[in-house]
């Protein structure tokens, strides 16, 4: 009977020791497991420096390579109406012409008029695409001095007389950028009555204007 009691005490002691060891193991392993779990969550939710650099690089590539509209669309233009007459310009600015007004001017090409339509594109562009009927070509890029040379030099260069200074000269190009520069040059050279067709060739073709080749 005494032996059995001793055995029972030994078994109880071993069981208690095992429980303490298990508890100690849990108390030491749980923080490690929790730390590992937390580290895993951090690495999952928060990108590393390398990932951030890669993301920024990818975003930069998208911004650089994303398709953009043509320069003609990106360039700001002064508004123009299809119904209103040519706007009265402020001092030192051009009148603004719209499609219908230029169409009326083109339809009267050949008549003696004080209004002269000038295409500011390069000659090769006119050869490839045509021009608005009745327009003369004064290419602003290759001949920026056209309004400063003498009348004889102008006629020798282009084969037709230069518009007189008392005429209203209306400029257009492909998208309204070169025509604005041409009008500014003309005004600086003494042509005070200038006009611009901001829609230019793009607008003319889109709206079905006649083309002279």
Automatic annotation (TrEMBL):
Positions of the UniProt region annotated as Disordered: 57-93
Rhodanese domain mapped to chain residues: 111-213
InterPro entries given in the database record: Rhodanese-like_dom, Rhodanese-like_dom_sf
Pfam families, per the entry: Rhodanese
A GO cellular-component term linked to this record: mitochondrion
A single GO molecular function term of this UniProt record: thiosulfate-cyanide sulfurtransferase activity
SMART domains (UniProt xref): RHOD
Listed name of the protein: Rhodanese domain-containing protein
Organism annotation: Rhypophila decipiens
């Amino acid at each position: 009977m005494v032996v059995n009691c001793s055995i029972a005490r030994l078994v109880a002691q071993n069981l208690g020791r095992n429980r303490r060891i298990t508890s100690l193991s849990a108390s030491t392993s749980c923080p490690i497991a929790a730390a590992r779990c937390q580290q895993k969550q951090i690495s999952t939710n928060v990108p590393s420096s390398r990932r951030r650099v890669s993301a920024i690089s990818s975003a930069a590539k998208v911004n650089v390579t994303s398709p953009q509209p043509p320069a003609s669309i990106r360039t700001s233009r002064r508004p123009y109406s299809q119904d209103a007459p040519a706007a009265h310009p402020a001092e030192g600015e051009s009148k603004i012409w719209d499609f219908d007004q230029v169409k009326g001017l083109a339809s009267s090409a050949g008549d003696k008029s004080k209004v002269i339509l000038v295409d500011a594109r390069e000659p090769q562009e006119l050869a490839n695409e045509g021009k608005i009927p009745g327009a003369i070509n004064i290419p602003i890029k290759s001949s920026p001095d056209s309004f400063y040379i003498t009348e004889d030099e102008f006629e020798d260069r282009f084969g037709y007389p230069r518009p007189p200074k008392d005429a209203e000269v209306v400029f257009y190009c492909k998208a309204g950028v070169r025509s604005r520069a041409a009008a500014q040059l003309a005004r600086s050279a003494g042509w005070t009555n200038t006009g611009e067709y901001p829609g230019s060739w793009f607008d003319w073709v889109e709206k079905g204007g006649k083309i002279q080749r």
